[in-house]
Design brief:
By secondary structure, the protein is α/β, with parallel strands linked by helices. The protein contains eleven helices and eleven strands. The strands form three sheets. A six-stranded mixed beta sheet has the order 5-4-3-6-7-10, sandwiched between helices.
Amino acid sequence: MLSNWLQHIEFAYPWILPLLLIVPYLIFWHIRSHRKQTAALTITTTHFIQHTQNWKTTFRYLPLLLRCIAIAAFIVAIARPRQKFTEQQTEGEGIDIVLCFDISGSMTEQDFTPNRLEASKAVASKFVEGRPGDKIGIVIFSSQSFTLCPVTTDHNAVLAQISNIENGYLQEEGTAIGSGLATSVDRLKDSKSKSKVIILLTDGVDFGGQISPDIAMNMAKLYGIRVYTIGVGSNKSMDVQVQSMLGTTTQTRKMEFNEGLLKQLATQTGGQYFHATDNEALKKIYDSINLLEKSKVEITTYDRYTEEFLPLVLIGLACIIIELLLRLTVFRKFP
């Protein structure tokens, strides 16, 4: 409970907290003074001293403990512990964005680290975190397409859905770029935003699907939606491990990639085409799109504080009162 409280607390005057060192010094000083005041008497036997212990001697340090607690509570209270609540007010016009992910089998090729899809997810998450004023949605596709997250300002939900994307989420294999793009257009066509963008991320090998890329491209043009296409991968060959009847074997496979289609989709809709050959290039591409599509949004941050010092003051006062009562009654010293 205390650790949870500390995680949500900050101090207005943290430089006061070192005064807590007074507490261990007070304990040290009390013990040292008590030893100096202890009388010494030489005796021949000590057997009767065993019966002199009582509850008063057992709890003789209780007033000191109460005083230390009171001092510590007052010092922490003076440092003004408080809970911080941050509120954001957004003014202006953001951009509506749909991230369209290819999750087909070819996106598991390992010319990226650890593979094309996982690298794409990681960079897309960073992109979302850098667009606080925009509404963002997610569409995934293989041989069919699916809206994984509608366009929303709840970026935590968007990030959670990105992390859940994996190959095989849509059971049928294939790469229906037209279907994925058409579904993305459908998410944006009714948007009132003046700027609507689709970021299509795929290796560009299109086959299957009920809607051709040309039809989806014309739909995007009709609704004034710009399409930024990112070609992930290359035509280079690399060694990959495959399972066979003889066990795991290594084969040389040529990475499939089709730039022509992606360039056409981008240029015809007023967007741009980018080619990502590795993780770092993919990150730079998202940074470029981030600069090209600027939101006219002003975010004002307000910090509210809830003071938490009063319980500490009450604890300190209670300890002081109890200590005084004990010293004047139970632990009263007579001259």
